[in-house]
Amino acid sequence: MHNSPKINTYMTQNQSKPWNSEESSELYGVSDWSSDYFGISTEGNAVAKVQFGDSLVEVPLIDIVEGMKERGLNMPAILRIDNLLDQRIKQLNDSFANAIKQANYQNVYRGVFPIKVNQQCHVIEEIADFGRHYHYGLEAGSKAELTIALSQLKDHDSLIICNGYKDTEFIDLGLYAIQMGINCFFVIETQSELEIIIERSRLLGIEPLLGVRIRLASMVEGHWNEDSGDRSIFGLSTNALLEVVEQLKEADMLHCLQLLHSHLGSQIPNIHNIRSGVLEACRFYAGLVEEGVPMGYIDLGGGLAVDYQGSRTNDTHSMNYNLDEYCSNIVETIQESLDSLDITHPIIVTESGRALVAYSSMLLFNILDVRDHTPGALPELPPENCHDLISNLFDVLSSVTSKNLQECYNDSLYYRDEIRELFHRGQSSLRERALAENLTLAIFGKIAELLPQAKRVSPELESLPELLSDIYYGNFSLFQSLPDIWAIDQVFPIMPIHRLDEQPSRNAVLADMTCDCDGKIDSFSLVDGVRKTLPLHPLLENAEYYLGVFLVGAYQETLGDLHNLFGDTNVVSVHINENGSFDFVREFEGDSIADVLSYVEYDPKVMQEQFRCIAEQAVRDGKISVAMRQKVLKAFRKSLQGYTFFER
Q: What local confidence, expressed as pLDDT, does residue 558 receive?
């Protein structure tokens, strides 16, 4: 037996009292997950919050949506706010700078952004441009990503870290970059690639900048913990590391090895894991110094988490530390480990991706329709000559109290299922079945209303609000825009972006536009934890209802697929000004139907000709006129150029 879940009581209590924005902020946990980048105004609008010196500017997201509509950019859309990305870069670098200053650490921090986390051009351009002040670099795991890094980074004090498998073309490009004065490090993942690096270096006459990626024994918690430990697929074993050192000595290139790389995992929720991993990495660093390797850089990879739930715990989608704790733990652990060995403090490198870009992007979409589970109109009395089971359901409905909830629930299920069985055998009518199901829904609704008054609630009654929840149909594709929800059960903060000064009166799950049972969201982070339903407002006639999915800047755009041939959404990049105005910096139209058809090897021109032949045959067969043929062909051509998502 369990106590009644808090979210249900939260939705049903104090219905008569006025609702305000502060209560919405608490309900959706905004202050917990937003890191002060978002809030809710007194007018009930979700706002983006940007700091300009001592002043804080708040811009309602609904105002940006209205600006998008005026520019012909329909829902769904990815909204990027450049200021939030800039603020995140600043906060990460400032936090490390403060930790270094407080500890009297004798070197600097150099961050790099893993391009794989968000390869979108405008994102990388913004990181390279704003990050230039902090000598912020890029990490490349493929030849394509290396070309991005080389073309975008103008500051040669920044680092380019080359991870992953590297062929001759990759290595040659990196060596040319080094010759041009770019700090481009090859991180050795396997011994075989070192042979290629040595060969190409000698042939081109360019000395490489080298790092080694080691496989730590330290294990971490969270979804991506297989990146760590002895069975990690990445990194050199201790023995392989020593063989690399010997190879470099034989090639008279030991002085080229300057960087130690380790990666514990992505989205590490527990600070204890980070400190333990850094400590082990420092022992490897010290061991290499003892072997006569000059060193100078320690790259601790990614792992800085995002608190998607806002629970401040070591849950997979949360974190039990803040940014300052993360930075100070790394700095202090390195310092304490190396000072006792009289080893010079190295330059600290991290590859934070998720934590850098997650906050600056959100998915916005409108709700197209709602399927509710409220009963239809019920007669006051049982119809004449109705089945006894129908009369029994009427009796149950009139007898529900807080003391007999379980009994009424059991009885209603029994009577309803008996009617269904009779219907299957042809002994009950369609109208009787409909009435029985409506009565059962009414009984369930009455039970759900009384749950907060019950002293004890069984698991099946506890799940009743979920059973009665509405389905809100959203204008988006889960597989295109939020693939991690489907693939790894990722939890993202989701809430309306307006009407937040009204109390939400409906519990809902979200369904997308795909014809797929997996195309739904039924796990939501709220003030009291992760719940199966999301509190929402009823739709208003002739008015759009907009929801926002926040913290989606990492991985979602690139990992998205073409399920049901829903293509890329519209994308808008906005810069917020100090006076509260905002500029549309970039506008990218989403895929047209012709675009996505070409991705799967259809030729839109050929398709138009094929359809023209079909329409012409319909004319010859007398099914349509020539004038109608023109209308049909025009509609076909227009459809090819249309947005793949729902358009009003």
A: 83
Q: Residue ranges per domain, the chain?
A: 1-104+355-372+469-590, 105-352, 388-465, 594-640
Query: How many residues in the chain?
Result: 648
pLDDT value of residue 229: 53
Nearest partner of 197 among 176, 171, 218, judged by Cα = 171
Distance CA 529, CA 383 (A): 45
The three-point CA angle 23-24-27 to 5° equals 85
Position 456 scores a pLDDT of 86
- Please confirm whether the linkage preceding 382 is cis (ω < 30° from 0): no
Query: Does residue 295 contact residue 385 with C-beta atoms inside 8 Å?
Result: no
State pTM to two decimals. Answer: 0.91
φ/ψ (deg, to 5) at 553: -70, -15
The CA distance from 29 to 550, in Å, is 12
At position 522, the amino acid (one-letter code) is D
* Nearest residue to 455 via CA among 116, 125, 66, 3: 3
The structure tokens 């980070």 sit at 274
Residues of the chain with pLDDT under 50: 1-10, 13
Compute φ and ψ for 260, nearest 5 degrees: -105, 130
CATH number of 388-465: 1.20.58.930
Over the stretch 283-293, which tens digit does the pLDDT of each residue have?
999 999 999 99
CATH architecture of 105-352: Alpha-Beta Barrel (3.20)
Question: How many angstroms separate the CA atoms of 591 and 156, rounded?
Answer: 36
For residue 91, what is the enclosing H or E element?
helix 82-103
DSSP structure string for 268-336: ---HHHHHHHHHHHHHHHHHHHHTT----EEE--S-----SS---SSSTT--SS-HHHHHHHHHHHHHH
Phi and psi angles of residue 376, each rounded to the nearest 5 degrees, phi first: -75, 180
pLDDT of residue 467: 87
Burial class (CB in 10 A: 0-12, 13-18, 19+), 115: buried
CA dist., res. 139 & res. 161, Å (int) = 5
Calculated CA dihedral for residues 95, 99, 100, 102, nearest 10 degrees: 130
The Cβ-side half-sphere exposure at 460, using a 13 Å CA radius, reads 8
Distances in whole angstroms, Cα of residue 79 to Cα of each of 67, 113, 126, 482, 584 = 12, 20, 15, 14, 10
Radius of gyration in angstroms for the set of CA atoms belonging to the chain, rounded to a whole number: 30
3-state secondary structure of 44: coil
Residue 527 sits at the vertex; the CA angle it makes with 523 and 532, to the nearest 5 degrees, is: 20
Classify domain 1-104+355-372+469-590 at the CATH topology level. Lyase, Ornithine Decarboxylase; Chain A, domain 1 (2.40.37)
**381 phi, psi to nearest 5 deg:** -130, 155
Distance from chain centroid for Cα 537: 24
Q: What are phi and psi of 118, to 5 degrees?
A: -160, 100
In degrees and rounded to multiples of 5, residue 479 shows phi and psi of -75, -25
511 within 8 A of 476, measured Cβ to Cβ: no
What are the structure tokens assigned to 574, written together? 């906005």
CA distance 589 to 597: 16
The CB-side HSE value for 629 (13 A sphere, CA atoms) comes to 17
CB of 421 closer than 8 Å to CB of 409: no
Query: In the block, which residue shows the tokens 């979700």?
Result: 46
How far is the C-alpha of 330 from the C-alpha of 298, rounded, in Å? Answer: 11
Structure tokens at 619: 């004319």
